[in-house]
Design goal:
alpha+beta; Beta-Lactamase; Alpha-Beta Plaits; six-stranded mixed sheet; 13 strands; about 50% helix; diguanylate cyclase activity; PAS-like_dom_sf
Amino acid sequence: MAEELDQVIANALREVLEVTPNAIGIFDQSLTLIYCNDVLAGLFCMTRAEALGKTQEEILKRSFDTSEGINIASDDFDSWYQELNCNQQQTHFNQFEADTTEGVVFKMTRMTLDSGLMVMLGTEITELKQVQSSLELALTKLELLANTDQLTGVYNRRYFEDIARKEIDRCIRYQQTFSLLLIDLDHFKNINDHFGHHIGDEVLIHVTSICQRQLRLTDTLCRIGGEEFAIILPSTEASDALQIAERIRESVNQANIPVDEHQTNITMSISIGVTEYKRHDMAISDTLIRADKALYRVKENGRNSCLLI
């Protein structure tokens, strides 16, 4: 009776193994495949008959040689397999992801039993990975929106404060420096009052573009207020920052900004306060206060110039 029950259970388990959507394979002590279902064989673009009796190395080498089945991220199969075999000998259990040349992704679990048999179990997670990828992309877009000024397309004050904190941390850690430019568009209210806010917006966009053309890839331009911008210049001393500020100011002065379809142009000027990070600055607010003082003095002295404090 007990033997009959054992046989019933064995048959039931075999049937489950055959119909499960999961990949299942068993290797003996010499890493020869002694059992697999169609799902596992399909991972390697093989039939069950083709896979059974082959070693793990032979099955994986076939995928490597034919570029079918499991993707093997190496140009040197022997070194890759040697590392795999070494890892399998060092641990009896591990989980990893395996993707196929057809774009199917499986979450694999490998177990070495006390008997020496090695069991491979795999669950397809292709759809889950696609959902995760979509979510990550959506989160990236949301983060970009949260950090971007919608009018000009440059970073906003939120991002400025975040990147400034990181820049201060970098300077403290590596004993480096950075400079800060604080830019204000001169008499911008007059433009809004005379031409309208839509022209004011165009002026902001135009000035932003001029500033960007004068900056390096490592520099960060942010709109931190209505007509106020800040630029972080990493690894830049005050004297160099002042030269960059003057270059930006002159470029804005020389620009003709169109305001209507009749080719009416206006010219703009900007005022820039310049400062360099000091070791005693505990936060970006300390650096910003000095730049703001410099900007205030520029405005007091007639605007359209740069001042370093």
